Amino acid sequence: MTREDDQSLTIQQQIQLELQQLKSELALDFVAVALADVNYRDIYWKIALGAKSERYRKITVRMGRGMAGKVMQTKRPHIVTSYPEEVRDEMLEYPIFLVEEIRSAVGVSVDSERTERKQSYGVLLVGQRHERVFCEQEIARVEQSAAVLAVLYDSTVVLEPANEQEQVENTDVKSPLLQRLRGFRADGITCELLDQRITRLSHIRQQQIGEILDLLANHSKRSFHPAAVTMEQDELGHTLIEFQCFGGDPLSQDLFDPVNDLLKSLKCDLEIAVEAEQQSVRFTIPTRLLLDEQIWNP
């Protein structure tokens, strides 16, 4: 493609073209770009080639956590050759691997060439659904594409006065909700934490959510049937929590009488769906509102 051809394409088209070329050259299953929000706190997957579904758009990653968060924090490549074995204790912090069934991946930072911009735009991730050891030349090729993306983003982003990068909160290790999910996994309940913003809520709020999930988990344990819990961002920016139980005693509104006050405090409603072989409970947490609550009522 000539320089004139490049100039005739939109920035978005040039980004897509670069990703397609990278995917083809390295024979990759998956290529994606994640970008940080304006506060440089949460990270969202914006573009993906080879995706199995649109669920990657519902993922929110915290700075310093998982593939994207660690790359943006360190500005160094992050390589996972065998998922989940290599990150067993942090498995829930790699939602893109869960959603896209990625086995091996490399993530590199998309860094601005502007000397006055110290923060990265985001992360370029390449992945394989079977185990693959990426060699140095392949990693260098991914970094080359990241540099191309950086130039394109430099040409479109208006540079504002840079704020000092916030210290990455080290609360995830002690997050009551994260600890509960790990406990659920140990009990055989499938867990997907796609919206990691919820682990930034106060410990009180996380405990409240955990008590509701405990009630559901105990119900499924008594019936000895498989269960799964998913937390993802919906189109309104809330956190949608769904608990599914495959079989067992029917769920009813009466089951939630002990936690009605918690549901009211969290400003959410329950939706119960019962089908022939599966039943589910869905409730939405207004995460943005609750995070703002922490700012105004510390």
TrEMBL record:
<protein>
    <recommendedName>
        <fullName>GAF domain-containing protein</fullName>
    </recommendedName>
</protein>
